[in-house]
Task: structure prediction
Amino acid sequence: MIKMSNDSWFEEYRAKVLEALSNESLRKAVQEAQNRYWKARKKTLSKTPYYEYYRKKVREARTWALNHLDELLKMVKENVEAQGGAFYLAKTGEDANRYILNALSNHDAKLVVKSKSSVTEEIDLNKYLSDHGIEVVETDLGEFIVQVLGQKRSHPILPAIHLRISEIAEAISKVVGKELPPDPTVIADSVRNYLRKKYFEADAGITGANVIAADTGAVYLIENEGNIRFVSNAPPVHIAVTGMEKIVPTMEDAMDAVRLMIPNATGQDMTAYVSIVTGPSKTSDIELRTVMGMHGPKEYHLVLLDNGRTEMLNDPVFKEALLCLHCGACLNVCPVFRQLSGQVWGYKYLGGSGAPWVAFLFGWEKAAPIAYSCLMCGRCKEVCPMGIDIPGLVLKLRERLYERGLVPPPLKKIIDNLNKYGNPGGKH
Ligand code: SF4
Result:
């Protein structure tokens, strides 16, 4: 007999769902974003003749990399150190935070500029640093808006889609100290001017990384705004933080992953910028003597995070989830996400594809509401560039949740009826 947990997780979630469903503007914004994305992606892919080739190649490269992860981690470490950088493999989020704080403390850092990153969100890095007296300023426009409002993002690529322009103008007006009209160009100009100073005042810049090539230790950073270039280049220290599953064997594999990721993430053929970083800035122009930090940072750290990924890797079913590129394509076609957005449907990692991540990284109870909300429509599986069987994983997740007694009360009733009366409806 499976022991059932108490139902507080279900009631809390139900309340949040009802609140999200009553928020008309949130739903409209998410729906508009999904529609636009879908059209853009379709148009781009119709002009991408090698799409299936990239899908196959990247899946093979990522699968091979997961099967040889220890070897590739060693290569990354050696290559980063050979370029004059520092490498750290963090077992837990706490380890990663402590390492980063220590690296910043060595410079008596007070201000950090940062680019959007799921992994830093996973480990609550901003809070950790601000609890230790370091100000962290987000520089992606959407993420900056969400940070200013003290909210959480509702989409991995478009963090502020749940907000109306009037709310954004009001919030940014307070930060820049003048009243701004509800005009995207004026708001973007004001934020740009505000952030420009921060890049050069900051003691360090922290970025994520989309892919890592083991053969050189290079990290690939994909963006449209240009903020990542400033974050990784203007301050004297650059710290890149990401999950260890993002390693692929070679730079060619990494570029294939970039080619595959972009149309699925933004609907574009290519973003405005893809930066490749292998270490600190340096010059040997004077008598061949090496000086670090010529125009860019003189110190570079690559922090890779385990934090439950090894457990996923060792799980024959959920290893598949580690192939995720976090492109968000599945969310952009998901009918549940369309109604609830990431404000409700997820915990740091969003939607059905995020559910196994939430279970392994943050606990099964947190994953339960996400797993049970999935409609099993299968659109995500169809669209996923890595061909991940997301509904299949969600189903397996429900089996494991059931084994842990995590079942929504209406389903419990059905299970009771089946056990007692042999039918889901109860006594007839
Ligand atoms: S599951 Fe597939 S579609 Fe969804 S974020 Fe991951 S790679 Fe993209």
